[in-house]
Amino acid sequence: MSSNHCQEMRLLLQADVDGELQAAEAARVAAHLDSCPDCSRLQQQLLALSATLRDTLPKHSAPEHLRQAVRARLRGAPGRQAAARRWPVGIASALVGIAASLALFAVLPMRGADGMQDWVVAAHVRALQPQHLLDVASTDRHTVKPWFAGRLSFSPPVRDLAADGFPLIGARLDSLPGSEAAVLVYRRREHVINLFIWPATAEGETAEGSRDGYNFVHWAADGMTFWAVSDLNAQELLEFAGRVR
Amino acid sequence: MKWRGRPQPGRREDAARPEFEDVVLTHLDAAYGLARWLVRDPNLAEDVVQEAVLRGINYFASFRGEDGRAWLMRIVRNTAYTMLAARQQAGRIEAGDSDAVLDVPDPDDGPELALSRQDDAARLERALAALPIELRECLVLKEIEELSYKEIAHITGVPIGTVMSRLWRARRALMVAEGAADDEQ
Ligand SMILES: [Zn+2]
Known about the structure:
The structure holds two protein chains of two kinds.
Chain A: H1 4-17, H2 23-35, H3 37-56, H4 64-76, H5 80-84, H6 89-95, H7 102-107, H8 112-127, E1 136-137, H9 141-148, E2 168-176, E3 179-188, E4 191-199, E5 206-211, E6 214-221, E7 224-230, H10 234-244
Antiparallel strand pairs in A: 1-2, 2-3, 3-4, 4-7, 5-6, 6-7
Chain B: H1 20-26, H2 28-39, H3 42-59, H4 68-93, H5 97-102, H6 115-130, H7 133-144, H8 149-156, H9 160-178
Helix pairs in contact in B: 2-3, 2-4, 3-4, 4-8, 6-9, 7-9, 8-9
The structure holds zinc ion.
The site of zinc ion has 6 residues of chain A, from helix 1 and helix 3.
């Protein structure tokens, strides 16, 4: 029904409706709309959908009791150091088994390095959902490394470990609290390994363990922090970490 | 993409930066609204916000005084994903639990709403709820929070091009659900 040109117009048309276009691009869209009834109709549909969504969907405001609870919590937590001490480490680590006591998980915080374990494991799990694993699929580190340039302000080291039995399958960007992470994705047999990398100053810091059936190994070196996460067994994951380091 | 650094213990807060409390309380409605649309459960949404606030305390050192709303929503979004993953894992043990969540009536729907509008809203909400979460969050951030592509990309941690195609797929799905779209594609 629509021509290829119209197909290509769609994201531009949408961007126009969303007010994201510069004048020149907007003029291009307008010129096309003048001559194309199909795209004009699509524009009307997009505008109508927008209006309907904004008119009919409820705006969820934070309930007053939540606002009070947050306020109270903020008053009780003057700083991160003080806040970090409010729950004993033992209790916190006992709680992070995600599948374990869900109700407690919901209300109790995870902190510092402990918290980061959960972030990276959660990011690993999230990445296993269809089409979440890779932004760029490539077994060639000379493709993967430049891919990060322009997307990140740091340059993660990319090693070819195929000869060691850990072939690279690609990479993506992931978001961790307050920062972007480069993620290199390796494989061992049927197991996916996510290697998270971002700049950090915690030289010499290490950790290893498991969360929810996923093993992780963490270290810091050369101004970068590294987290390897996988359902691979701990021993082979350590071997992987050893190859990367 | 700008690197925003890791939190560093012992680092003092800049005087020019807004207080954490101000950022949180100013944008609490937006934070709750996003959590609500992502997890589709009022109680879990509250837990997400509380957890995000606690995490935010930890990560506030990484806040450079840029857009506080986007910063907070990004943490809320990541927290929601984490807690949804936890719920899904638990759901494997207690099957059917997450279906029950979807049927929780919306307490915000007052009786003053016209019936037809309620029907429209309910139909749209169902269609929105049925979208994959990564499409739903883009649409909610765009249409309800009225954020820019750039802000949405920042919050969801994907390139702007991905935001655009997710928005398109989300809208396409809703237009099909509304019966407004052509059958193609
Ligand atoms: Zn056209």
